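Let us practice reading a record.
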Amino acid sequence: MNHRIRTTLLAAALLAPALAQAEGSISIAQQFGIGYLILDVVKEQKLIEKHGKAEGLDIAVDWRTISGATAMNEALLANALDVVSAGVPPMLTVWDRTRGKQNVKAIASLGSMPNYLLSNRAEVKTLDDLSDKDRIAVPAAGVGFQSRTLQIETAKRYGKDDFQRFDKISVSLPHPDATAALLAGGSEISAHFSSPPFQYQALENPKVHKLISSYDILGGQATFNVLYTTQKFHDENPKTYKAFYDALVEASQIIKADKPKAAQTYIDVEQSKLPLAFVQKIVEDPEIDFTVSPERTFIYAEKLNELGVLKNKAASWKDYFFEEAHVNPGS
């Protein structure tokens, strides 16, 4: 072996452990809405930094806000972000497509909360009344949480071959913009598969009514959003990952211990103009649980596999969550 090759190999060997231990930074992206309250508490109280110090690390945290699961998944797979957040179906899609490659899995749930499909057309009373005259606003048409949830219900009502029936009349629009369009009326947006707090805000208008809830479709309380990352980030940053997971657990406990304060945190961090009493009512809604434990996520894994959206069949929720989450109950 010549001297130059030997030197290069030696340098690589010396660098390898250092790279594997290159911990102490994390970039996280969230979307809009109260579904990200756990992250708002983590951010405001600097809980990642706090738990990082317990691991002997000074963690630099980079926070981003992005609308839509498609953009989230693209950023994660391009290594532009370490951790992204979206509904259960987009996470399962990227888990499915990266098996044996980046091996993307979920870190934790961000809580269980219903999403409502709303309409501002009086003649539209149920899903059956939606037609080509309607346009349904969703954050990521065809692929996001709302679209996939609607596809599961559509398959149940109209048959498996027609599960994408409503994709043709769905348009991608961030929740704040969709809410404004639904309330204003007069635009092509006549329906919105919404999320908290936007759905409650819209329902204060007498012209807006609910067609169906995600809880109706899933058979009860179910996880809305999850956080997820690659196997590489998980394995190469054990202390940073642990600090992040511990921060999420603590934030969940903080919310449950003082819901009025958590409501104020949402307003402060999101710079929301919503009244405190209104946000507090949402945080205290018995349908909503800010828990890191996944609930009814496996329904998506099963149904989306049956519809051919997911090629891989999961045996249980533990197949697509990293092991740190397995200590808590889940489904």
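A brief commentary: Strands lie at 25-30, 60-65, 84-87, 105-109, 116-119, 136-138, 170-172, 191-193, 209-213, 225-229.
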